[in-house]
Amino acid sequence: MANRHLARSTVLQSLFEWDFRNISPKEAVGALSRNATEFAPGMGDADFAKKLLQDILSKRADVDSIITKAAPDWPIEKISIIDRNVLRIGLFELLFSDRKEVPAKVAINEAIELAKTYGGENSGKFVNGVLGSVYKELGEPGKDDVPKRPRRPDVPYDQMPVKRLGGAVIFARTGKDIYLALVHDIFGHWTLSKGGVPEEEDIKSGTVKKIKEELGIDIQIKEPLDTNEYIASDPEQGKIRKQVTYFLAEAKHEKLKLGNSGGLDDAQWFRVADILDLNFYNDILPIVTKAINLLLKK
C-alpha distances in angstroms, 153 versus 9, 109, 111, 123, 156? Predict the structure, then answer.
């Protein structure tokens, strides 16, 4: 069910926060409630998500021990935070869930989808390999079961739904210094503020409005920078294409007030001289670099 997939995604967000910030299980449950309210208001399986999170945390030692045995070449502290928490979800459901409610294949497939959506380029293969080896050790339970519902068919790239977004490299000048406004996501990356813009709305004015909602500041767009497209998974639509138009925009160097924007936990101004030491996504760094080069020429 799409709601169960959304619930697992929210559990993953909360496990990431628990792992990254080293918070208590009680605080992790609080984070789950907050994440569900902010990022998944339509989720219908809140009780399922809460129980899954609590059960994973209570079985953490057992699950981590199995990860260590199933991936001996990868010390658990060296596995990326996303991948190891996807493994915790997948292994818990594979080993400890009621198989009538969560068949083994469903546990594995759901974990792989989470890894593909939120992890790196090879996360899906890595998670598949680890869970697959454990599945074989279990004797491949449910191997011949007929699935209750057909798997969502793969949609050709040119037939995927398209979601249009507008974003900006936002700069401010204070004396001789140039600052950039960046947002930080729950997966540990600094990135650019952006938001969805309906097809009927002008992309520039829509971007200005979304930045205001996300950061609480007014921006003045100076020029277009670049476009970017990536494939994401939507719980209801499946694979979708997200097309982002980025602009160079100026603002006053005033306090940023992060709004209720999905997946973000911080927003800060950085001096240009300090930007390249930050952890960026590979497709965002060239856009930021292009903006910096333009600003330094002016």
Answer: 21, 14, 18, 21, 9
| % pLDDT > 90, the chain | 48
Q: How far apart are CA 4 and CA 10, in angstroms?
A: 10
Task: Please choose, from the candidates 226, 230, 258, 257, the residue with its C-alpha nearest in 3D space to the C-alpha of residue 242.
Answer: 230
Q: Kindly report the CATH number that applies to the domain delimited by 2-137.
A: 1.10.940.10
What's the topology of domain 160-297?
Nucleoside Triphosphate Pyrophosphohydrolase (3.90.79)
pLDDT in tens, 144-162: 554 454 455 667 878 888 8
Question: In this predicted structure, what is the pLDDT of residue 134?
Answer: 87
Report which DSSP code applies to 150.
P
User: What are the residue ranges spanned by the domains of the chain?
Assistant: 2-137, 160-297
162-197 residue pLDDT tens:
889 999 999 999 988 999 999 987 667 899 999 899
Which residue's structure tokens are 């003045």?
A: 220
